[in-house]
Amino acid sequence: MRIGDEYFDRFFTDGYVLVPDFLQKEELERCRQEVLRYFPTGEEMSAQPERFTTLRKSAGFPFAGPTLNHVATHPDIIDFVERVLGTPDIRLGDSILQAKYGPDLSPSKDQRLHNDAWGRNTLVPPRSDGAFGRVVGIVYYTDVHADHAPTHVVHRKHSEDVPLLSTTGYSAYDPAEFPQLYAAQEPVTAAAGSLLLFTGRTVHRGSALHAPGAHRFAHFVNYHSTASGWLDTQTWSGSPASPNGPAVREFMESATPRQRSLLGFPAPGDPYWTEDILGRTAELYPGMDLAPYAGA
């Protein structure tokens, strides 16, 4: 297991924890190659800026390439999230790649401190306890130094009494109203392949990339339990991301039943599975091993 007890304990004590070398060297290299399908390096942008004037600096699940999809559904992350939320019934909320570049290439901005307990698609006030919590992760595919847009976090001891919603009715905190949070924030520097994990109520923010000509590639993921089924989940829209699109089909056929369940796919033994549904699923995903579902 790549996320041991020491990380679990610090996650609850501090509200966040950095897991160095979460990705093995070979995994990291494959991820980097797949990220380059979406974003240029800082060197490429500097050499030919006219090619990237309309560059989108984010991309969402599923990705063109198997490794990135399996990072978001990594069994060790699933183990950790199940342990934190106290239930095996969890879902993947977002899985988003993000690129940031130096101020001379494509300037980024400093965010305000905020928390992620408030889901974008929920109509009720947030809870952060037990199965109603949320686990957020950031996997870094490039080194993050002090001037390479580190995520800033606030230790739990400094934010325990801060409301999940500010007086504006949003999860962002005004520096004038919460100066103690900004005084307590700390940047998280990390080597490529590291995983930053934090709770949904952990106060944090993204920062601008200040190094000229540089780039930072990161993978943002979050998870919640089915007890919070009204929180934001994957939206299967658009040609490559539709259930019968090539990217989804490739991932679903290679995934384990546990990974599929993370996306809301019925688990083996679920009453949803009938002979008719099994047959139609085989037509939709011809390369999928349906034996676990048929046997149950």
From TrEMBL:
Pfam families: PhyH. InterPro entries: Phytyl_CoA_dOase-like. This is Phytanoyl-CoA dioxygenase family protein. It comes from Streptomyces shaanxiensis.
